[in-house]
## 1
Amino acid sequence: MAMKRSELHSSLWSSCDELRRGMDASQYTGYVLVLPFIKYVSEKYLGQPHDAPIVIPPGASFREMVALKGKPDIGDQINKPIIAPLANANRLSAMPDFNDPFKLGSGKQMVERLSKLIALEDLFERFSHFGVPPAKAGPLFLPAAYRPLAQEYRYWRMLGVR
């Protein structure tokens, strides 16, 4: 059954608010927004020739990230074999550090937090964009899904709420 946009927004907001505990909203958005980006480009450009706008190196797709859920070295494994090759191949900068114990906790707390963060993307699997999968819906799908979330973060930051 397709999820309504309001349900998606509500789910995203509550999950993000719970997961960011103690982290400034502006820092957390870097983690939250990079995952749908990686998911989208992985689905759209994985296996595409080198003239595609985004190159997905072998082993650096969202599928590999999902396989890391629950693993004790999840942060390090997201950074090194996924984020670093993707960033290097596409000259991306300012990617978040998924192995930062000050922002994500350490040990079991980091594993749980990152596993739940990756699981947020499962919401997109249930969200029907007029019957079209998110990767085929075009680049406007992700901004439409995350726009209310970003607006709400900006509102709370304006009020000085962290």
## 2
Amino acid sequence: MAEQRRFRQVVLLALRGIWCGVSLAIVLTSCRDNEVAPVAAAEVVASSTLGSADAGVPRGWAAPEKALPAPPGMVWIPGGALVAGTPKEQLPRKADQEMPGEQLILEGFLVDQFAFPNEPGAIPITNVTQEEARALCEEKGKRLCSELEWERACKGPRNLTYEYGNRYQEASCGTGGPPRTLPSGYLFGCRSEFGVHDLHGSLWEWTDSFWGRATDGDELALRGGTDTEGRVVGRCANAKPAPQGSRDPTVGFRCCQGQRNTAEVTIGVNKGQALRRVLRPDRDLMSTLEKSMPEDIQTKMKQRGVFRVASLWEWKPVANEDLLLATGCAGIPPLRSCGALIVRRTLGRLDVLDWADSGHFVPLVRMEYSPLKVWVYGGDKLSHYRRDVHFDWGDVRVGEIVRTARAPAPSRSSKTQAGPRVDQANAAARARFGRSGAKGRRPVQREQNEGAPDPPTAP
């Protein structure tokens, strides 16, 4: 019996050893398979277009970019995608000066942390021409930054609207006032995610780029700076032109290093008549506009009837902007409700911007001095009036009602004093035309705006 027990124990131990060995083999095999799987799944290519440094890199894997060692005071900007300019659906935006959010791939480069002389606490050098700025950079073994390199350094790896985020914050860079000269690093919060300081809030900066906005002149591009329109000027995509050879106490510069990126701002400028009435508007377009009314305006209109577009106007406040003003009414006079629907047309898409109420009249649209502003004329039982529609960097602002001065009603005393003169005038009229002529004339019919003042006339 004792020998049988020993035999069973030996058999059990042997079986346990065999089971553990098999399990261990399975585990090791699966681990080796998992390690090899990514390499086996990736197809190794050695394309001549990639160069010898990229030979043998699995497809879909990015070859690591060789970063230049950053000297003291400089920041390495890695290569990557830049969303150049401002997308069309994003506001504020300068349609005639900024690329429409076009993605470009830039190579890596180095940029100074601060404006020249690139020293914390120092006062930046100003009042130099672009050629002088280029020479000062070259003395340091550097170069001027291109316009898009400057924008890449500002927008950071996430392509932000402002260097500090996507929402405007006046205090971050001190924008919203005239250009000024501040010590480098004075506004500590004004830096991009790459670590570049003072891109806004102080000086404008020369770039190594021409003003490539479909112009024939030799103007150059400035970046940075500040102005009273801080939410517009403080954006990384903002720029302005400057004459070649000019110098200004509010213009400085900063330097870059490394191979210059050749990408530049290129914009096709589409100009046209600033304000034009469409004589034969497309019926489908009119129907779409009638259905595009904002919900609150639709609720108001339904109290009077169905809104119908009576006329259509094309408005081009700046190049590359295509706005429509659809004017019409709901209901019948004298209690109808009228106004103008302002819409942006972009590649067949209609984006409603605002509504300008015109009371009981189909509005008249007029432009006086600037293509940035049109007047919508209307009226109600109180008086005629007009209101301005101002183009505001891609958006529109509808102004308050400006009423026409109305002559006061004559007092009873004035009627009494004027009585003899009125009687004399009536007698003269009867003598001139005779009673038979008066009877033969048909009474003048009031127009369909009965119960309201006469339609306003354009100035």
